[in-house]
Amino acid sequence: MTRAFIALGGNLGDTHATLRKALDALDALPRTRLVAHSRFYRTPPWGLHEQPAFLNAAAELDTGLAPHALLDALLEIERGAGRVRDGERWGPRTLDLDLLYMGGVVLDDERLTLPHPRIAERAFVLLPLADLAPDLELPGQGRVDALLAAVDASGCTVDP
């Protein structure tokens, strides 16, 4: 089994319910167990600012799936939640699942980069990830707690 971390987010519809269903779907993946999930965070939009705030979280998994198989499963969960990938970056969405880290694997191909290349820039990823693994060393990027200390997280709040 390999330890993996997934970022979850959304800003359309009932985001609490969507994220909870996504966590259940992650736990139901073959050869995969949901170990823990972070608190939910209300965060300002990234990139395109004229849209609703996001709800973000992170999940910690033990999985026997290979990286690309896990990515395919994440995309299927997104589709099941009504996510349409129309090429728009940073726009509104029902659900976004990003594979952040997978057992120290370093990978960069046309479909997947591990660890996720923009973790260090994003408080909306680092805050929930720090709930689960503040001392996690991301190859080529640093420790989660140090990365979080270097970003502005002032617009992010814990969502009850």
From TrEMBL:
Q: Which CDD domains match?
A: HPPK
Q: Highest taxon of the source?
A: Bacteria
Q: Report the protein name in the record.
A: 2-amino-4-hydroxy-6-hydroxymethyldihydropteridine pyrophosphokinase
State the species of origin. Frateuria flava
Pfam families referenced in this protein's UniProt entry, alphabetically: HPPK
Question: What pathway or pathways are given for this protein in its record?
Answer: Cofactor biosynthesis; tetrahydrofolate biosynthesis; 2-amino-4-hydroxy-6-hydroxymethyl-7,8-dihydropteridine diphosphate from 7,8-dihydroneopterin triphosphate: step 4/4
SUPFAM superfamilies in the record: 6-hydroxymethyl-7,8-dihydropterin pyrophosphokinase, HPPK
GO molecular function per UniProt: 2-amino-4-hydroxy-6-hydroxymethyldihydropteridine diphosphokinase activity
Family per record: Belongs to the HPPK family.
- Keyword Nucleotide-binding recorded: yes
- What EC number(s) does this enzyme carry? 2.7.6.3
* Alphabetic keyword roster: ATP-binding, Folate biosynthesis, Kinase, Nucleotide-binding, Transferase
Q: What class of enzyme is it?
A: transferase
Segments forming domain 7,8-dihydro-6-hydroxymethylpterin-pyrophosphokinase: 89-100
**What does the UniProt function comment say about this protein?**
Catalyzes the transfer of pyrophosphate from adenosine triphosphate (ATP) to 6-hydroxymethyl-7,8-dihydropterin, an enzymatic step in folate biosynthesis pathway.
